[in-house]
Write a structure and sequence with these properties.
This protein has about 230 residues and is an alpha+beta fold. The chain contains 8 helices and 4 strands. A 4-stranded antiparallel beta sheet has the order 1-2-4-3, sandwiched between helices. The chain is globular, with a radius of gyration of 18 Å.
Length: about 230
Amino acid sequence: MVASEVQDEFEIPAFELTEKDRQNLARKDEDFQPHTWENLKQIIAKIPHQATNDLESLRRWPSDLKQYLQWTKLTKQKYTTITNFICTERLRWTPLPPSHPSEGPTFPVENSTPFAHPSDYKILLNDWPYGLTSEITHLVVWLKTRLAVDSTVGDLTPEGRGQIERFVKETFRDRIERDGGRGGEQVMWFRNWTGLQSVRGIDHIHVLVRGVGEGVLDEWTGGRRVLP
């Protein structure tokens, strides 16, 4: 398969396929180089300092990307949107009635400040993680509240970034350090610019952790597993 044939095979992609996605779909897994920790640091560190979002460089294993696109097609047939599936099956959150059809889902909250109340967010393992080396785990923190973003490109404002930094330190880095680890060297986070999000409307951030045991992961996720 060549890259130009990919769009025809996957008629309902989970997101707008970039040229890198098309090239990746044309590869075999044995030709794919997974992201290492150092590679991820380089990609994520660039984001606040450039005009374009280098998160487009993050890729899934070719076989996972193909399965993801097929899963998305089937899931949309059953749930209409991926957002509906996430709300119903993964988060078990019931949205409020929308005030306008174009708006994303909103939810009743205990506190309108992001991360202020544990009932207003949920930590899950990413069902469809990027292609990472084996010691890295990909988590997603889903929020009922909205993070403050720039209306032009959809990147975080300084206020939104600060809220995330505090939450990540208190929830992930400090927990790792209590076990003698180095939280600052074992945790990274990022948020896709709005235009890159495959699940629109429910705010979420990605957290990458390195060398963390199953017990601690279960503490964060409540023991919730990925899709079967």
